[in-house]
Amino acid sequence: MRFVIRDAHLGDARSLIELRKQLDDIHAEARPDLFASGYFYDENEIVTLFAAQKSKIIVVGDGSSSRVLAYMVLNTEKAPQSPIFNYPRTFVYINDLCVSEAYRDQGIGKALMEYAIGYAKEIGAHTLELNVAEFNMKAIGLYESMGLRTRNRRMELLLAEEARGRDGDE
């Protein structure tokens, strides 16, 4: 399949919302205890992303129409200087990466990762980073095949059912 990677524009907002819904649905299905069903970006959030100086939104188009097959949000971050780290560092954080369900397993995710790696090198970032849900084995496989390695792991213990939703209710 032929596809084109390009910077997103506001005209892509509807497609970004639809793709984000697919991403949110994956999380809600795998972890309904944690992720709300039916949440997705709205147009205000998309406009805010476009306005954020640290964010770069990339889309993959089908090359022959305006159809968006995938998107990725890259944030350029500067880690605060701290005595526990050897040096201050700049990193690129992949905030979102979603390939439309209809176009998965066609090399689009790999192409987006190659783009992200190239972009991070181009701006002189020390690292390319992301978070991935432990249940998302397909994504983990892709990231590991691209050379990413686990640096730390966030773990949880699900406590009593009654404890859910009480944060901030005091």
TrEMBL record:
Q: What's a single GO MF annotation on this record?
A: acyltransferase activity, transferring groups other than amino-acyl groups
Query: Does the keyword Transferase belong to this entry?
Result: yes
- Give the signal peptide as a residue range, or say none if absent: none
A Pfam family this protein belongs to?
Acetyltransf_1
* Record Gene3D superfamilies: 3.40.630.30
Record domain N-acetyltransferase: where: 3-167
SUPFAM superfamilies linked to this entry? Acyl-CoA N-acyltransferases (Nat)
Key words of the record = Transferase
| PANTHER family in UniProt | N-ACETYLTRANSFERASE (PTHR43072)
Question: Which protein are we looking at?
Answer: GNAT family N-acetyltransferase
State the organism named in the record: Paenibacillus hemerocallicola
